[in-house]
Amino acid sequence: MSSSNADPVYVHSKNEAYLILIVWALSFAWTVPYCYFTGYQTTSENWELTLTMGIPSWIFWGVAFPWCVSGLLSILICLFFIKDDDLGQADDELPLDE
Prior knowledge:
Layout: H1 8-39, E1 51-52, E2 55-56, H2 57-80
Antiparallel strand pairs: 1-2
């Protein structure tokens, strides 16, 4: 099925899904490496736990920060990108003018 013959509702929903997956992938690509490299310290190393807003910094920047950014992006996507599509009228419904 070529893109010119595809249902516009399908194309629009596919684009929305791609955008949501991109946001998820970026959050994942930030969270996992950041938490791995900054959160897992061995006991033989001399390191001091730093706090940001009362929680360990690696949790704040590795989990809370991307969570807030993803939430904000999700709200913006819902407000400005995702739109209601006209699905037409079902065969068993009466027209509105009758």
